[in-house]
UniProtKB/TrEMBL annotation:
<dbReference type="Pfam" id="PF08937">
    <property type="entry name" value="ThsB_TIR"/>
</dbReference>
<feature type="domain" description="Thoeris protein ThsB TIR-like">
    <location>
        <begin position="8"/>
        <end position="108"/>
    </location>
</feature>
<protein>
    <submittedName>
        <fullName>TIR domain-containing protein</fullName>
    </submittedName>
</protein>
<dbReference type="InterPro" id="IPR015032">
    <property type="entry name" value="ThsB__TIR-like_domain"/>
</dbReference>
<dbReference type="InterPro" id="IPR036490">
    <property type="entry name" value="ThsB_TIR-like_sf"/>
</dbReference>
Length: 138
């Protein structure tokens, strides 16, 4: 399993359908194996006593990842945590985590905040997403 890509997929639970769609797309991708280090909806970390505890939990999950994947829907711009996740990926590790921005399927407007932070930006397309992840993992 040396070719397994460890991913931290950023998401807002209020937009969980896009997250689920992406996971389904990755699960169906041929010849692609990955581990998802995102914080699941039912994870106790969501009951964190304070923001620091949540920040530390996100940082811990992200530490295992090769690539941070962010859905660049316009909602991302308004997410309280998106800037913190970008900061963690870029500043909190000895080697920064590459960021892949995915423009959600059918989206007319996307997050400039996410796109500015991204090492690569792709459209909602299985082959584009998988190739970008493999490229950024190197």
């Amino acid at each position: 399993m040396a070719n397994t890509c460890n991913l931290f997929i950023s998401h807002a639970w209020s937009y969980g359908d896009q997250y689920k769609g992406l996971v389904k797309l990755l699960d169906a991708a041929e010849g692609f194996t990955y581990s998802n280090y995102s914080v699941p909806k039912d994870d106790p970390v969501h009951d964190a006593k304070n923001e620091r505890e949540l920040y530390d939990a996100i940082k811990k999950q992200m530490s295992y990842s090769h690539v941070v994947v962010i859905l660049a829907g316009v909602y991302s711009t308004y997410s309280k945590w998106i800037n913190k996740e970008i900061y963690i990926a870029q500043k909190e590790f000895s080697t920064r985590k590459p960021i892949l921005a995915i423009e959600p399927w059918g989206s007319e407007r996307t997050s400039q905040v996410v796109k500015n932070a991204a090492d690569k930006i792709v459209k909602w397309n299985t082959n584009s997403i998988v190739s970008a992840i493999k490229e950024l993992k190197k």
